[in-house]
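Journal club prep, shared notes

We agreed each person brings one worked example of a sequence with its structure written out as tokens. Mine is Zinc ribbon domain-containing protein. I'm keeping it raw so we can talk through how to read the token line rather than staring at a rendered picture. Sequence first:
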Amino acid sequence: MRKPEANAIALCPVCRQPMRPTSEKCPNCGAERHYGPRIIESAVCAFAGMVLLAAISTLLLPISLWTILFAAIGLVAGFLFSHNRFSGDRWLK
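Then the structure, token by token:
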């Protein structure tokens, strides 16, 4: 790969090696730019929200249809939390 020109150099946030500022992947360390949450992050946050709100509703009321409603609300809330938490662009290895 050609070396970038001196005025068009950016440093990789992971390995601090020179790279092009428009690159989506670092040629040195292989880190990639990600926008938004990955699938695993969305799934973990949604599952945690579902379990947490279902547990809270079970503590307040006996298991009923309200528990299912609270679990569904927790699922949506966890999914929205993951999109809020991981909304920016990040460099992941």
